[in-house]
Amino acid sequence: MPARKSSQTIGSFCCKCICWTVGLLVLLLGIVGATAGILYLVFKPEIPNYSVDSLTISDLRLNFDMTLYAKFDVKITANNPNKKIGIYYEKGGRLSVWYTKTKLCQGSIPKFYQGHQNITKLDVSLTGQTQYGSTLMRTLQEQQQTGRIPLDLKIDAPVSIKLGRLKLRKLRILGNCLLVVNSLSTNNLISIKASNCKFRLKL
User: Fold this and answer.
1) Which burial class, exposed, middle or buried, applies to 165 when counting CB atoms under 10 A from its CB (0-12, 13-18, 19+)?
2) How many CB atoms neighbour CB 114 within 10 A?
3) Is residue 53 a contact partner of residue 75, using CB atoms and an 8 Å limit?
4) Which of 131, 167, 184, 186 is 20 to 30 A away from residue 24, measured at CA?
5) Could you read off the pLDDT tens digit of each residue along the chain, which spans 203 residues?
6) Contact 121/109 with Cβ under 8 angstroms?
């Protein structure tokens, strides 16, 4: 009988421990949720947005090994609309230009800090070599005859968020700008006929 009573006591103690643990977890989750809600109401975060101002092609040619070499210069505007949030653009940010599913060139986004409600102009140089250059060049030339060449400009930027004096962990801003340009002629001003950009944050 004493052994049975001891077993019941241990079982009751374990049950209480589990209840306390679950209760503590619920309380912690509630505190975290409330803190996140308060921060959201105080800082009212908005996703930064970007626009493509101009696109210049410095070089677009076939190499002797039949790869396609491309050099683009892209001017973009980065807009931080937040009133109380600063953005640290960290090392490793990339900007790339694609035609259909083929990457033509890629460049690095500079490391810098963007204050709240700030608009920053960026000039990014992109270079790249692509396999099957002759086929791709022929396709681009045929597309150019229509005066409407679809390009996809992709942004991948690691950033850290500044809330007041607090610098938070790194996030990634992922962006996609679907462009339609009138020409791929080198060293000429290219007209951007259409631009549709979308952005999101990735934890």
Assistant:
1) exposed
2) 20
3) yes
4) 167
5) 454 555 555 556 667 677 767 666 765 664 544 444 444 434 457 889 999 999 999 999 999 999 999 999 999 999 999 988 899 999 999 999 999 999 999 999 999 999 999 999 999 999 999 998 899 999 999 999 999 999 999 999 999 988 877 788 789 999 999 999 999 988 887 899 999 999 998 88
6) no
| Largest CA-CA distance found in the chain, in angstroms, rounded | 96
Tokens representing 110 are: 């500079």
Please state the three-class secondary structure of the chain as a single string.
CHHHHHHHHHHHHHHHHHHHHHHHHHHHHHHHHHHHHHHHHHHCCCCCEEEEEEEEEEEEEECCCCCEEEEEEEEEEEEECCCCEEEEECCCCEEEEEECCEEEEEEECCCEEECCCEEEEEEEEEEEEECCHHHHHHHHHHHHCCCCEEEEEEEEEEEEEEECCEEEEEEEEEEEEEEEECCCCCCCCCCEEEEEEEEEEEC
Q: Tokens 């908005």, residue?
A: 46
